[in-house]
Every structure is written in structure tokens, then in C-alpha cells.
């Protein structure tokens, strides 16, 4: 039987397992049954509310479950009952037979024959989310920092090209995981699925990193700088900008973006797509204008002000900055559970089309704009002490005769990045909170058409970094590179996880195959090269120290401190679950001290019905694929303290909100 026939037959099976979304007789919704996709139309609220409870054991939203596998002796009703079974995988290919199942409204159709919200993400939404995160202000601020490290324009452009190629490798790895595990959360789900032991460790380590550094600090600060530069043409250096005013404007723009996403996901996605086209036009205009100017007035490519080339370690440090500029290729994976499947296409194919489109465009634009930048300005001008504003302060006056317009354009570009990052980061933080191992998880996982609690958390983390991190060029470069350094660390483990992904999925789907890394000639060398290259960057990029700059060894030190704190958090949770004997009675440490941690997995015997229903609903909505919940029971003095805190929160809710 062909693969397309298998998929067509499997769709009928999936129809019986996907819960229908029926309107509630009362018209009300509980917290658990509220819309799990923040992009749903407001008009669909009543029709999608109060989904009936779903059996975890019988639910599986995979479209790769085939009739052949059922004939091989597997019972569809047993899907998901294995304690270590993988969660889900979407169909790896588009099916021509899918068109035979055409529905009256194709916007509501997907390959599982289930009705999905109309406003799920399309190819353009996917491309816009990725491109808007990748193109912030890095194209205007990073080329100077890269050239200062490499001391060679040719080498710098070569590294930008290598960065684009490396990003494609990043992307292929993540697309493979996105196809197998199409849930919101990205690395949160991938690491937890592959590195299952010790339980919760991979999840909490990544959560600690993302909660601390996955915010909108970088481009909100750059937005503030370029707004102030546009407001006062006399300002020539960032040292002339009032750091307090920079922070104030940065906090204001983060607040505005969070309010937009808090109020309406549709408004946020509309702005996201609008800025997608705006950025493409902007960078293409900058490239054409720069090349035209250099042809008329002479190229500065071979200027004699450049010193001898930098060291190889400086080159690796430059790659970290370039990786930050390309950062964003993973952005759509964070909301993979919301990607639409149209006729003849699966969510996985929609993700691939949008991702390749966005990364290809960014790769081309970054290299061409950097070439134009280096042709117009000499080395000394580009690598000055305030190189993060080189395009706005030096390039624009030469090419456009005025810098005002470009300063405003760069600020708008930064706004697009803040919009895209806020949308996806809030979804990841919501997915983290849903597992219930964070304090105040009820508020943080709150979802009323938009992830309101997670947006508040994202706002708090962004404001804290804006308030305490330096806003000068050196401080900005350190802060953005720190997040990139951590991202490279976790991406390395995701890449190595490719070796176990197929076997992991085959524990449930006997005929499962990887879709991109199908042959061993691709599967073995690519992840090894990818992981080895990342390891080199992690080791050597942090060794060099530039006089007068923040030492780069603080990258691994800061990341290690964050991971250490996360590890201690995990360790305390695990210690409370250890069993000890007191007077012949077996108890857990948590029961003794009054702080008991219980972890419910999908196969837990005594799982409360409400927890079971919540797992099933979030799994059906694809906003969480963990099939896990953590419950904390407090007693004694800890219980009394928790009760007091609850009363205080209720009082504040009543009188303030």
C-alpha cells in the first residue's frame, strides 16, 4: 500500500479520535476549555467552547497512523498508553488524496479531518513570524561589530554567508522535529521528548534559560535609540543619549506590544504580516542605494585604514554576533501547534514552505546589505566606538543625504522584531506554565483568546532586563550574544537528539520515518558537523578578551549560573519525592516537611479527573505535548504561608483588578 493511501485511510481513524468542538448548552466556558489557540476569531468563541473531555489514552492527533499498522496488530484504542510513547507526529508529506476530502470551507480543513480555527497560521504567517524575528536591527548594528572583530571586509562578508548556510542547517534540524512533534514550545518539547531521564530535568533547564533571557530586551532598546536619534539630529554618538530615556522608551514599546497581543491576536498577526513586506522593501532599497552610491563616488571596499586581520577566536566571537542576527529561524516552531493545514498540505509542509521562504530571503538580504555597507564606508568609520549606530549615523547621510528617514525606518524594523518575539515567546512561556511546576501557574497559563498570563510574565522579564542591563553598544552586544550563546548550547543538544528521534517515534509508530534526514549518509554527518561546529563556537568564542569591553567569558559563566539555578530548582522538587521510612511508615520527604511534589504522567494510576481532562484538552489543541502535570501539596507552616498568600492575592484581585 502506498504512503498516500495509508495516510488517507488513517485520516478516517483520526476523525474518530479528535474531539468535536460542540457549543456548550450554558454558553459558558471553564478555564480549561477556553480557546487554546490565541489566534482564533472572536466570532468562533461560542462554537468552540466547552469541548467534551477527551480520553488521553485514546487521543492521538497524528496523521501518520496507518491502516497497515493496524493490520499489523496494533489497536487504535491503545494509542498513547505506553509510558514512554512519543506524543504526536504530523504527516511528513502532502497527500494528493487529501483533495478528495474537500470540505465546503477549505479554511477549516486539515489532514486529520478535524475542524480547526480559521485564523490558524498560514505560510505567510509562518514566514512573517520568522523574518520579523530575524530582521530587527541586526542588519544595521551588527556589521560594524563583526568587522571590528575580523578586521577584514572580505572575511566579514564570508562569515555572513557561512552564517546563512549554518542557519539552513539549524532550520533543517528543527523542521524535522517540528514535523514529528507539532506542538507549541519548540525546544521545550523536543528536549523533553528525547532526553526523558532524569524526569523533568531537560524541561526545567530549558525553561530557566528561556524565562530569564527569552524576552524583547535587544530590539526594544534599539528602537528607543533610533527614535531618540531621529528626534535630535545633533546627537552623533550613543554616549550622548540619556540611558534613562532609552530605558523609558524601551519599556513603553514593550508595554504597547504586549497590550496589542493581550487584546487581540489578530491585530498582532496583521501587523506582523504588514511589517514582513515592509522589511523586505527596506533592505532591498538600502542595498540598491548603497551599490549605486559606491559606483558613482568610488568603493571603500579596499580602503587602507584596516589593520591586520584578527585572530581565529575573534572570528568565532564574530560568528556569535552573526548567529544572533540570524536568530529567529526557530520562531515558528514555538507555535507549531497553531499552523494551519490547507487542502493537499499538512501543517508540516506549511511550516517548511514558510520557513524556507523566510530564511532564504533573509540570507540574501543580509549578505547584499552588508556588501553595500562596506562599499560605502571605510573601516575606521564602520568600527568606531559606537559601531552599533553606524548605518544610521554614517551610511544614511552619504547615500540618502539625510539620516532622519532611515533612523525612523530602523526603529520600525525593531518594532517588527518585538512584535514577533512577543507573540511566540508568550506561547512558549504559557506552555511552560501549563505543566504546573512554576509558582502562580494558574495565572501564567491563563488563556482567554490570548495567553494573558504569559504575556504579563514576558513583559516583566523584558522590563527587568531593560532596567538593569547596559544600553551602550558594548552592553547591548553582550546581552544579545548571551541569549544567542545559550540558544547555540540547547540547539546542539537538539541536533544530537536527531539520532534518537526515529527510534523514539517508532515506539508508537512502527512505520515512522524521518522526513528530511532519511538516509544514514545525511542523518549521521549533518548533526555531528552541526553539533561540533556549535561546540567550537561555545568553547573558543568565549576565550578572547577585548580591552575595554565586557569579557566574553561572562557568556558561559552567566549561562552556567542560570542552568545551576534551574538544576537546584529541579533538585529540590526531586528530593521531596524521595521515599524514607519514619517509625516504620514509608513517606516522601515532601510529606514530612510539608511540601509534597506529585508528578502526573499520562499513565499515572491515581490521576485526578480534572488533571486528566486538562492534559487531553491541551493535547488536542496542540499547545502542550508533555502529557504531564505537576501538583504541589503544602501542609504545616508551608501550608499556612500558602493560605496567607492566597488570601492576599484574592484581596488584591478584588480591590485592584
Q: Tags for this entry?
A:
two-stranded antiparallel ribbon; 4 strands; 657 residues
What does this structure look like?
The chain is mainly α. It is 60% helix and 3% strand. It has 26 helices and 4 strands. The protein has helices at 3-17, 45-48, 67-71, 123-134, 138-150, 153-180, 187-194, 201-213, 217-231, 243-263, 265-297, 312-326, 347-376, 379-382, 390-400, 404-434, 441-444, 452-468, 473-496, 498-506, 520-523, 525-540, 554-575, 589-593, 609-621, 636-656, and strands at 579-582, 585-588, 595-601, 628-634. It has a two-stranded antiparallel ribbon. Strands 3-4 form a two-stranded antiparallel ribbon. Helix 6 crosses helix 12, helix 9 crosses helix 18 (452-468) and helix 11 packs antiparallel against helix 16 (404-434). The radius of gyration is 26 Å and the shape is globular. The chain crosses the membrane at residues 157-175, 200-218, 245-263, 275-294, 353-374, 404-426, 454-473, 479-501, 521-541, 553-572. It is a multi-pass membrane protein. InterPro entries: AA/rel_permease1, AminoAcid_Transporter. Residues 26-38 have a biased composition (Low complexity). Residues 46-56, 78-92 have a biased composition (Polar residues).
